[in-house]
Protein: MFS transporter
Amino acid sequence: MNVAVLSPPRPQSSSHPLGGRRAWSVWGVGALVYLVAFFHRTSLGVAALAAQQRFGVGATALSSFAILQLGVYLVMQVPSGIMADRFGPRRMLGAALLCMALGETLFAFATSLPLAVLGRGMVGLGDAFTFISVVRLAASWFPRQRFAVLTALTAMTGSLGQVGGTVPLSAALRSFGWTPTFLGTAVLSAALAIVVWWWIADHPAPAMERSSTANPILADLREVVRQRGTRTAVWAHFTLMSAFMVLATLWGYPYLVKGLGMGAGPARLTLTLTAAAPLVVAPAFGWLAGRRPQLRGRLIVSVAAALAVVWVTAVTWPGGHLPVAFAVVLVLVSAVGSAASMLAFDLARDANPPSRGGIASGVVNIGGFSAAMSASLSAGTLLDAAGGTYDAPSFQLAFAPITCMIVIGTVRLTLLLRPWRRLRPAPGDHTGERTARPLSPAPTTHTPATRPPSAAPHRKPHPTRPHRPAGRAARSSRPRC
Structure:
């Protein structure tokens, strides 16, 4: 039996309407937390040269910062989902901000590599709780048909944090130096934690805010993984997200400049424009999925097939020297795939009840990040094995693993998503509280106590006493002394 422990009532007199002003303000504060987290996540890229001078390390040691931060983020996805379900998004977002503030404080005062690595690890730990908690808020505060577009807008907010945070951070490092800059980001995170604790509520109805549950954690995790929709969502995130992450975070610029001979300016412009593409495409996909959920499967399979075609063409092109126009298409289609990967969370939401929404989102998130991390590391290994020349044939070899992942994922999605093409949201799902819907309706059966009146057997009244209805209803209607 499931037991829920209720948190102390929030200062609200009644429940708020789904999708109203209060809902948008709650989600807006949560999205701002994700923007700050994304800013922390990408801040090291701007401060890489300053970090080398401060700690006296080379590029290999400096890469340990990024690997540790991404590794902590990946490992903590399922635990963060569990804690978002158990303790609520409000508490987890506040704890995430305080963890990132402490990590940035250590990073600001660190003069040795171990303390700096510890600081970045704490930043990654706090970052791991943000996206899942914001998605959990969107599932509770908005109707089902808006969930896909809210997920896309959340991801778009993170991208804005990456784009908008580079210039201010660079200017602050030049003007104020290392310690004041990163200490200022820590103070910003701590101040935002106060806003989160004061304003965010886990649910529009105060009585529905659960602080914890007595459900066994492993049982919840098994139920999430058992759902066909969850497994489909993992494959969708695995296939669609990884390609653009490989290009945008590490290998896109070297591939365009050294592999294909593109100029530095055009290469930066290409990556910038394609990074902005998800800002437009992701909300459009989310809006369409909310209005026509039956099209989600076709959208995901179509984008995955386009990804497979362009990547197979790139790794099999004679000599490896792609035309510039096709290289732009390759990066652009990869960016569209990253935008379409947000539909995976919509599939997982329909497959799981709200009480397991955080765990489901964490499991889905593992798919894309594990594929991206594996593909990036394998590409670097294969480039070194090819002599480190970074020419076009070397990049063809380096991109072979990610191409194989995309092809396998596309085939698997084509097989899995056929039932989802006929899936509709459950009738009456306008409250945000729904259960997983089966792919086929269960046969209708009636017990004697619940048999409809038309199916009730005819009984002849007894000649000496009045007729009484049989069963539990009759016993409950008798007077009690």
In short: The chain has two domains: 17-204, 219-426. Residues 1-13, 423-481 have pLDDT under 50 and may be disordered. Residues 255 and 395 are 7 Å apart (CA to CA).
